Amino acid sequence: MSKVVNGFTNLTRLALAISIGYVGYSITQFSHQLGQLAPIVEEVKQVQAQVPGILLRVDTITAQIPDILQRVDTINQQIPAVLKQVDDVNQQITPILTRIDAINAQIPTVLAQVDAIEKQIPPILAESQQLRQQVPSILKQVDNTNTTIKGVSRQIPTVLAESQAIRHDAPILLADAQRLVSDVETVGQQASEGFVSGVFTGILKAPLSILPDGTPLFSRTSLSDKDEKLMKEAVVTLLDVDKVGSQQSWFNSSSQIGGEVTLFTSHDDPNQCRVLKIELTKKRRQLESRATEVCKDAKGKWLPKS
């Protein structure tokens, strides 16, 4: 490539020199014949004066040609990659256009939904306005309710205390009521079972002494040894566990007599005293029901409350 440029430069110089020589020759020939050629000669001289500058510019341009050619080669090397990128972009255009078409197809549906939402906004705003208008009355009702609750809350401790007292007294009251009912039911059975009923009435009314050293639980004049043992074991078990609300049953298969003992807390002294509700039955029929209160002494023994 540089040889071509050098040859082109030399050829240009040669042609320019020949042209100048030919111009000079022509001027010389015409100068002898025509004295009017002086202006032309002057112009030629001016052109000759400009030739060195033109040649200098040509040399400058010629010196820049290799760099220009190198840049052209670099650009030519990059053209395949650029063309490949253009092909890739062209291949992506079709899917992009397809997606654009799909989006355009969805636009009417989206606009319809937007219109539907816009139509719902006025009713929602109206309902919101109604709710805002109702808020003061609701807040007033809440304040009234809070005031009422405060008044009721002040009465709750009293009500709870009365309820607790009723719960403590309920076993005794129920036991007395059951005893009265039992007495009425046993009136017609005194001929056949009067002796047994009287026996257990005497037992329940007898002094109660529950002692770890084996002192009889009830009077032994009306109970068999086995009856007394079973009843005492039931009562002692309950008091040992000392769990309010627990029950203990016993039954003597020989005499067909049994019972159930329930442990309640004492209303007067819930820490040291308990209420024993004792129910006696024979052949699944209740004979007697009574509540007895016992308390612990300083030695931890359970004794009837004085």
Please give the structural blueprint.
Layout: H1 2-33, H2 38-185, H3 190-205, H4 225-241, E1 247-252, E2 257-265, E3 273-282, E4 285-296, E5 302-304
Q: How far apart are the first and last residues' alpha carbons, in Å?
A: 137 Å
Q: How many β strands by DSSP?
A: 5
Strand order within the widest beta sheet = 1-2-3-4-5
Number of helices: 4
Strand content: 5-15%
Structural class: alpha+beta
* Average of the residue pLDDT scores: 73
Largest sheet entry: 5 strands, antiparallel
Percent helix, as a range, is: 55-70%
Radius of gyration: 64 Å
Structural domains: how many:
2
What pattern of helices and strands is seen along the backbone?
A: HHHHEEEEE
State the shape: rod-shaped
Q: Report the uncertain regions.
A: 183-221
Structure commentary:
The chain has 306 residues and is α+β, with helices and mostly antiparallel strands. The protein has 2 domains: 1-133, no CATH class; 186-304, no CATH class. Helix content is 70%, strand content 13%. It has 4 helices and 5 strands, in the order H-H-H-H-E-E-E-E-E. A 5-stranded antiparallel β-sheet has the order 1-2-3-4-5. The radius of gyration is 64 Å and the shape is rod-shaped. The termini are far apart.
